[in-house]
Amino acid sequence: MTGRLLRKYFSSRDDYVLATKVYFPMGSGVALAWLLDRPAVAGPIVGATKPHHLEEAIAALDVALNELDRAQLESPYRPHPVLGHS
Amino acid sequence: MKYVSLGTSGLKVSRVCLGMMSYGDPPSQPWILGEDVAEDIVRRAVEAGVTFFDTADMYSAAAANW
Description:
A: extended, B: two-stranded parallel sheet, about 20% strand
């Protein structure tokens, strides 16, 4: 089932390998793992309205990203020009 | 739980910070959890070693604060 769900959101197998490193029902674990990996971030603020939100955030502490993971996660990002400040 | 120094404050905090904007009693919005439900999540967080909590006067019209 998770494979089917992931195929819905990712076009190739390579793109969703990272999401399956740890089973995250909400998918937010990978995002939290990336935030935790950022040197400037002490700890992400996780709003939990269900116990499993919290469990997922704690599980993200054990996800070690490698260079390939980072490159994969960051590749879709396109920097935007700064607006409203001259 | 893992812990980290919070900037240059000298504080050591857990690497997971529990955001408490969605807790408040009485709930001021439909998506706010009352104390009975919120307490279970807060207790689990404390038991897991969380020592870092995000709250503010404005959360749920100050009801989340203490």
